[in-house]
Design a protein that fits this description.
The chain has an eight-stranded parallel β-sheet. A two-stranded antiparallel sheet has the order 1-2. Helix 4 packs parallel to helix 5, helix 8 runs parallel beside helix 9 and helix 11 packs across helix 12. It is α/β, with parallel strands linked by helices and 337 residues long. The chain has a single domain, classed as Aldolase class I (TIM Barrel), CATH 3.20.20.70. A hairpin with a 2-residue loop joins strand 1 and strand 2. The mean pLDDT is 95. The chain starts with a helix and ends in an 18-residue tail after the last helix. It contains twelve helices and ten strands.
Length: 337
């Protein structure tokens, strides 16, 4: 991974410093780029909030070989970790790799590791087209996320995603107001509940809403017919001053537990962080920026090495907290609970 990170630092110069700890401090306000919006307090609190949670170490038990497998949105996964839908290599990551090569490498590494990669959307068109092509090449093993465009563009892209073989599609409503799209003359906007119902009813695939940060909006997603939600503040790239996602995860997940799949992202940097989110009610976790660094620095092999690193860290964290299954992580793993 040292070689992968060194190569990524070279290719992403001016867009990402590939810091020893990706915490949003060195890249504050660098949007486009890999930074957080404004003061980057939202990005930074994603990382900080996870670091503040401490774990109970337990070594007197029989959980020696934890089970990481799960079923999620119709997929059988080998571990509860997915690659988040980060895209835009040319304007966010330095352009050191073609978009289509980047997304195919990311999704292929995930598929070969028994999990899923997610694809992004944006301007120009080759961003979503590259994602759809990768999903088609992998027989539908990936989740495309489409931004909350106006109807004509939204429905056209959803149709293309379905034609590519996507079994699950998503909308990252947390992209509403995204600076990069505004600068390109293609603004996106929030969606009222009635529109969400219309979109989901029109889409013959499981539908996931990304960007849910409050219990009331989680319930709205359930009422609208969503199959899943992603608790996310869009990596701190759309609204300065939001809490880290892990601060709201427990309450949001608790409001809809058992009714929809609950995923979460934001500041996950280790397998231990994954365990913390699972204990707060997430069924699975998405990781963003570190995946992009791994792909830029090493292609499919770099992403595969990163996934294996996270898997090993998660296994270790589960063993040392007495956690036998990723499907049944209890809040008792937390110290002082």
């Amino acid at each position: 991974m040292k070689e992968v990170r060194a190569k990524a630092r070279e290719l992403m110069k001016g867009f990402c410093r590939v810091c020893p700890v990706c915490d949003g401090r060195a890249c504050a306000g660098e949007v486009p780029g890999m930074g957080g919006l404004g003061t980057a307090s939202s990005f930074q609190d994603n990382v900080r909030a996870l670091a503040e949670i401490k774990l109970n170490m337990r070594c007197l038990h029989q959980a020696l070989e934890p089970d990481l497998s799960l079923s999620l949105l119709g997929f059988k996964l080998a571990m509860p970790v997915l690659a988040a839908p980060i895209s835009g290599v040319s304007f966010n990551m330095g352009g050191g790799m073609p978009e289509e090569a980047y997304v195919l490498a990311k999704l292929t590494a995930c598929a070969e590791a028994g999990t899923l990669g997610c694809t992004g959307d944006g301007v120009p068109d080759f961003i979503h087209e590259s994602g759809f092509a990768a999903i088609k090449a992998l027989d539908g093993r990936g989740i495309p996320f489409i931004k909350p465009w106006e109807d004509e563009e939204l429905f056209a892209k959803l149709d293309k995603a379905l034609a590519a073989g996507a079994k699950v599609v998503g909308m990252d409503v947390d992209a509403a107001g995204l600076v990069t799209l505004r600068k390109m003359g293609r603004p996106v906007s929030p969606k009222p509940a009635a529109k969400l119902v219309e979109v989901i009813r029109r889409t013959p695939a499981k539908f996931v809403i990304k960007g849910v940060m409050t219990p009331d909006e989680a319930k709205l997603c359930v009422d609208a017919g969503a199959a899943g939600i992603v608790v996310s503040n869009h990596g701190g790239r759309v609204l300065d001053g939001t809490p880290g996602t892990v601060r709201v995860l427990g309450e949001v997940a608790g409001a809809v537990r058992g009714q929809v799949a609950v995923l979460a992202d934001g500041g996950v940097r280790s397998g231990t962080d994954v365990l913390k989110m699972l204990a707060l009610g997430a069924d699975a976790v998405l990781i963003g920026r570190p995946f992009s660094v791994a792909v830029l620095g090493g292609g499919k092999e770099g992403a595969a090495q990163y996934l294996e690193k996270i898997r090993q860290e998660l296994v270790q964290a589960m063993v040392l907290t007495g956690t036998a299954s990723a499907k049944e992580v209890q809040p008792t793993v937390f110290w002082n609970t």
